[in-house]
Design brief:
Keywords: ANK repeat
Strand order of the largest sheet: 2-1-4-3
Protein name: Ankyrin repeat domain 60
InterPro entries: ANKRD_45/46/60, Ankyrin_rpt, Ankyrin_rpt-contain_sf, Ubiquitin-like_domsf
CATH topology of the largest domain: Serine Threonine Protein Phosphatase 5, Tetratricopeptide repeat
Pfam family, one: Ank_2
Shape: elongated
Organism: Paramormyrops kingsleyae
Distance between the termini: 122 Å
Radius of gyration: 35 Å
Order of helices and strands: HHEEHEHEHHHHHHHHHHHH
Oligomer: single chain
Length: 333
């Protein structure tokens, strides 16, 4: 078979075709991955507007609700999102599917069950009198009892979690104290595994952190993404909250370790084998025995830290010069 010029060029062209592989479905370009934008979320119940950064076209509504827990302070199971109409956005749908464009506004409302919207509004405003009325204690609202008084028949703790989460996120320490005193559980978590300490830490409200930790809120708890309250504070840059949570975490860890009344002799330092009540324990025979014990136990001499404790040091010379005073002082003791 004789190959013509056209056949050879066609064969060369066909050899180059396999290198141009078609893109698989679902794979996006790098340019589309970098196309991040922000959207605004309007909370209709309180009139607040929040900005959610780092959104993309393939971002799901459930991921938006997870981010809004720390941005807006509303648990994900209480959020009801809609866009351009009153229809609810499906959790597994994406921004591209719902036609959400950059810098647009998404509407959020609180699910209207069990008086939850009114409870959240009272927690945001910080009005304890409204909380008393909402909790079914309208007869106590006008009484002479102080606002922090523990009232009878509190709500279940799972119904008080949204109000506690919102009040800690807004820094309403009086509301946080009132809710804890009336049955709110500080260990309760949202569907994303976050407690009220996450909300207070990400906003940097140290007073609310102190109240929650004193009430028994766990500092080491992590959400579904593996983020602890100290990690949430560190991401935002609240160094005061980071230091406070580090101290609280250390205190909770040490509280779990049972103290020992008696130490093993092998765990003692050299100076703990002697009585330090005598005033002359650093000079004379006491100092010589002290140094001898340290060298016999394999420890380095303390001549660099205490130069006067050596045999030819200043304290030894003072003992030779005023030995009768040291002996008289030791005899009196």
């Amino acid at each position: 078979m004789v190959l013509t010029k056209t056949d050879a060029s066609l064969r060369v062209h066909m050899r180059k075709l396999p290198s141009q592989k078609p893109k698989a479905s679902g794979v996006t370009d790098r340019s589309s991955k970098k196309a991040e934008y922000s959207v605004r979320v309007s909370l209709q119940d309180t009139g607040e507007i929040f900005t959610v950064p780092k959104c993309r076209g393939h971002t799901k509504i459930c991921e938006l609700k997870t981010a809004l827990e720390l941005i807006a302070g509303i648990p994900s199971d209480c959020q009801r999102l809609s866009y351009l109409d009153q229809g609810d956005l499906v959790d597994e749908s994406t921004f591209n599917f719902n036609g959400i464009i950059p810098r647009s506004t998404i509407t959020m409302t609180i699910w209207p069950y069990n008086g939850l919207p009114a409870l959240v509004r009272a927690a945001v405003s910080g009005d304890i009198c409204k909380l008393m009325i909402i909790l079914g204690r309208s007869d106590s609202a006008g009484s002479s009892q102080p606002l922090g008084t523990i009232l009878p028949s509190p709500w279940p703790s799972h119904r008080l979690l949204p109000a506690l989460f919102v009040s800690a996120h807004r820094g309403k320490k009086a509301v946080v104290q009132f809710l804890i005193a009336n049955g709110a559980c500080v260990t309760s978590q949202t569907p994303q595994g976050r407690n009220a300490l996450h909300a207070a830490a990400c906003q940097g409200y140290t007073e609310c952190i102190d109240i929650l930790v004193a009430a028994g809120a766990p500092v080491h708890v992590r959400d579904l993404g593996g983020v602890a309250p100290i990690d949430a504070a560190r991401r935002v840059g609240h160094q005061t909250s980071v230091r406070l949570l580090s101290l609280s975490r250390w205190q909770q860890r040490t509280a779990e370790v049972p103290p020992r009344r008696h130490l093993d002799p092998s765990e003692l330092f050299a100076h703990q084998h002697f009585c330090s009540n005598l005033r002359t324990y650093l000079c004379g025979p006491q100092a010589q025995r002290y140094m001898a014990q340290m060298r016999s136990r394999g420890r380095e001499p303390r001549s660099q830290l205490c130069p006067g404790v050596t045999q030819h040091g200043k304290w030894h010379r003072l003992h030779q010069k005023h030995g009768h005073l040291c002996e008289g002082l030791r005899a009196t003791q």
